[in-house]
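Input.
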Amino acid sequence: MADALGSGGQRRNAMPIEFKEGGSGYTLGVEEELHIVDATTGELVQKIEEIMGRLPDELCEFVSYELFQSVMEIKTPPCATAAEAERHLRELRGRVGSWAAACEASLASAGTHPFSRYRDQKVTDQERYKRVVQTLRWVAQREVIFGQHVHVAVPGPEECIIAHNRLAEQTPLLLALSANSPFWQGFDTGFESSRVKIFETFPRAGLPPAFPDYEAFEGYVDLMVESGAMEDYTYCWWDVRPHAKIGTIELRVLDSQTSLKYTTSLTALTQCLVANILEEVGPQVPYNRELALENKWRASRHGMNATFYDAQERTSVPARELARDLVERLRPHAQDLGCEHELEGVLDIVEGGTGSQRQREIYERSGDFLEVVAFLIEGTRPALAEEQT
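Output.
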């Protein structure tokens, strides 16, 4: 791989990036980026500082700032199962939502806000975020988007790269299942996931390079740091990335989900995929990034109505068929990981519709984006999360 090579095709000596070994249990963590909206107008509102200032100490560890003051991230501790992650997220959505209400705001979850303007958002007053906006300007200023990230612990660095390549291959289907951002800036984009198209304008975003080994990843990071492009690997904003500091492979392609049940199902699917990837026997090779790019485009445009091309079989396969087959293939891993029920929820997305489809149904019925925001607020509340699915 050229990024990791010096002149003459000789591999450069990469500076080691210490990988914290995550063990063999595939423990996981989930992060959700949420909207902070005005309880009356439904507009994004700059209240992260007010809410964070009121949170009890025991909650602060699991709530984070993001690039804009109208965005909040909640995150679980390391969890053994998807069900355990769901319990933490349910508590966080509920308790943090109550503190938001005390600040005359509500929490909502989707990949984009239907109508608030990015030019009205204020950057969070932290050095990293101010530096990102100063460097990227308009590209960063537009990035009022919301994702779900899933971390899965892996045994070591080489296993992480195997998971990196194979999980990147699966991102088109994972994106299609998670699609939940049809609207942006007050119009229908025509995409099921407009969020990923907005984010792909960032440097080092989108589908990652296909690394042959962990040293190649280290070499890439060395080159980008040496060139002044970034400070460390956390400025690689790919759809999938190794997260060496905590010993995980991190899936970042998913839109934030309104339904907590959908969040949990996509978490279980990711955990089972990583287990399946690392327990397969046979040679491991970098993925076909060019084909994955084409399939990802189809996923962002058409969601679960997409058809993906399979180069090995030389045929096109509907996304719904691929999803059903994948759930069936992963059932043994779900049994081992204690997430059979949660994995089964993927079929509810296939049959019942993605978040993006739900949002469009609301808008087509009402013709009012405020109705869509009301739907997102209600669906994000823990007591109603299961009823919305």
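The chain has one domain: 2-385.
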